[in-house]
Amino acid sequence: MPNTLNQIKIAKSFDSATNSYDISARLxxxxxxxxxxxxxxxxxxxxxxxxxxxxxxxxxxxxxxDRVIGVDISNKMLNYTKSHRxxxxxxxxxxxxxxxxxxxxxxxxxxxxxxQWCENLSHLFNEIFRVLKPSGQFVFTTLLDQTLRELxxxxxxxxxxxxxxxxxxxxxxxxxxxxxxxxxSSHHVQDxxxxxxxxLHLARExxxxxxxxxxKKQNRGLAGKDKWQQMTKAYEDFVEPNGIYPATYRxxxxxxxxxxx
Length: 261
Ligand SMILES: C[S@@+](CC[C@H](N)C(=O)[O-])C[C@H]1O[C@@H](n2cnc3c(N)ncnc32)[C@H](O)[C@@H]1O
Hints:
With 261 residues, this protein is of the alpha/beta class.
């Protein structure tokens, strides 16, 4: 289970978003569904939904594969999945860095918008590699640098604190995978622009998703009223002619195969 302060805070943040998550998860639904065409057709497979959250995709996967296990670092997310997703039979509390599964035991790992929460890609990909069977598949989405670029830029005009998590570049992901013996058989990068009524709407959605924990932020808690107002003013540079506030999410989708050595 979470074994660093940062992991504990991430788990806590997702714990507290459990009940608001599903109504806020429009990006997650979109990216998760777009991974479906990459899934194998065989049914007799053992599949992990890594970072399963409220279990929306764990349930979908459970209709396609014989043995699907939802794994998450947040106990409240797991409890929610248990009580709301009738077709989900296996749930395990676990951290992506220390998966509670044996070597070479899983055919497919599906993971939708989770690994941006894992700073150490090398450690993470090693762990996923360990658990997958030879030729096993890792099908995932994550967020790249430029995600929330409008929010980051608006805050940069106000102070030097960190208000948005560090997202990796696509080259970091590709380089790490190839160094560790993965074969990246398909991937693409897409900017998804979501629309908001105002900056408060965006902030509420991020909180509703549990995506509001920022590691290494110096000033904990809410920004002061003045700073918040300066930031929302700066965000107006991005407002579209119809008054919509856009937010960019740069999504990396990948299908990586554990090459047979
Ligand atoms: C944005 S949600 C995505 C949930 C789900 N995959 C979906 O598509 O709706 C991220 C999930 O990853 C989980 N998570 C974050 N870091 C994790 C880690 N190190 N190990 C396991 N789960 C983690 C969170 O608790 C949360 O439920």
